[in-house]
Automatic annotation (TrEMBL):
Recorded name of the encoding gene: egtD
Binding site residues for L-histidine: 57, 165, 205, 281-283
Ranges that cross the membrane: none
Protein name in the entry: Histidine N-alpha-methyltransferase
Record pathway: Amino-acid biosynthesis; ergothioneine biosynthesis
Annotated organism of origin: Streptomyces solincola
EC number, UniProt record: 2.1.1.44
GO biological processes: ergothioneine biosynthetic process; methylation
Catalytic activity as recorded in UniProt: L-histidine + 3 S-adenosyl-L-methionine = hercynine + 3 S-adenosyl-L-homocysteine + 3 H(+)
Statement: the UniProt record of this protein carries the keyword GTP-binding: no
Keyword entries, A-Z: Methyltransferase, S-adenosyl-L-methionine, Transferase
GO molecular function, one term: protein methyltransferase activity
Histidine-specific methyltransferase SAM-dependent domain mapped to chain residues: 20-319
Residues where S-adenosyl-L-methionine binds: 87, 93, 112, 140-141
């Protein structure tokens, strides 16, 4: 058994209070909105895994292709002794990176809001990479992070294109907070989906099998279970649109007819007009100049930019 430590910086019960606050804030304004983090209960996480295997959803495969091709270069460029992974989930796609960083790698610090995902990932890693110290952090990395005192150089990885879920001001805040974690010689490895034709983008978020629609509607089940909302997922329709001006895909839930969703525990009733849409996710798509610019804005310098053969997705390596 390798050493395994788990630190929780999230109180056990914040989720309930945060969800309540997001519902009160997001559903009493126009247009209505909910943050995408509420998709990921056990069922939602399963549906997301299913999405990553859909023919239309290319980002996961494209990023894996880049990681496979570039892991050696990443290891050589960083010489990392600690790998910190933000939003590590199952840590599955990180396996190549860990393999490439060995034998210099001493510590792996997966950070996720899901303790069960962290425990599962640590267990799998222990079997495959004996000797690696794993210091799992249960934390919400959008709220500032305190990292354990592991050896440098550190490589902070933020993969999957999840940065695209943040709005521009949130991204700026997030990148500045990552910057404060980095000492000279440390680096950030970040995955970003890229701007491309509208048909490809929309299909990736509105697949033929309806898995993304089920994923989107799953947030309604979360509201029902966690807050006792009397909401029927069949009353809503899945919508995915490309906003060419802001260069992001939006997922929305559109009310099929006029209806009211009651939240008895919150003493709240939310009225939807027929056809009214609630935004449930923004997934920003990037160009190299924007990534370089936003990194620079946060005090980070883009050192490497790698894409898959088809140019659909990019991995950026940035230094402090
Ligand atoms: C996990 C945030 C990268 O935005 O593409 C997949 C989530 N939403 N299909 C993305 C998602 C709809 C995904 N990220």
């Amino acid at each position: 058994m390798s050493p395994f430590l788990l630190t929780r910086t999230l109180p056990e019960d914040t989720a309930g209070a945060d969800l309540r606050a997001d519902v009160v804030h997001g559903l009493t304004r126009t247009p209505k909105e909910l943050p995408p983090k509420w998709f990921y209960d056990a069922r939602g996480s399963e549906l997301f895994e299913e999405i990553t295997r859909l023919p239309e959803y290319y980002p996961t495969r494209a990023e894996r292709e880049i990681l496979l091709a570039r892991a050696g270069e990443i290891a050589a460029a960083t010489g990392a002794r600690t790998l910190v992974e933000l939003g590590s989930g199952s840590s599955e796609k990180t396996r190549h990176l860990i393999e490439a960083l060995l034998p210099g790698l001493e510590d792996y610090v997966p950070v996720d809001v899901s303790e069960s995902a962290l425990r599962g990932a640590a267990k799998a890693l222990d079997a495959e990479v004996p000797g690696l110290r794993v210091h799992a952090l249960v934390a919400d990395f959008t709220r500032g992070l305190a990292l354990p005192g592991t050896p440098g150089p550190r490589l902070v990885a933020f993969l999957g294109g999840t940065i695209g879920n943040l709005l521009p001001e949130e991204r700026a805040m997030f990148l500045r907070s990552v910057r404060t974690l980095l000492a000279p010689g440390d680096a950030l490895l970040m995955g970003t989906d890229l701007v491309k034709d509208e048909a490809t983008l929309v299909a990736a978020y509105d697949d033929a099998a309806g898995v993304t629609a089920a994923f989107n509607k799953n947030v309604l089940s979360v509201l029902a279970r966690e807050l006792g909302a009397d909401v029927d997922p069949d009353d809503f329709e899945h919508v995915a649109v490309w906003d060419a001006e802001r260069e992001w895909v939006e997922m929305r839930l559109r009310a099929r007819h006029a209806l009211t969703v009651k939240f008895p525990e919150l003493d709240l009733a939310v009225a939807f007009e027929a056809g009214e849409e609630m935004r449930t996710e923004v997934s920003a798509k990037f160009r190299r100049e924007r990534v370089a610019g936003e990194l620079a804005e946060a005090g980070l310098e883009l050192a490497h930019w790698w894409t898959d053969e088809a140019g659909r997705f990019a991995l950026s390596l940035a230094t402090a």
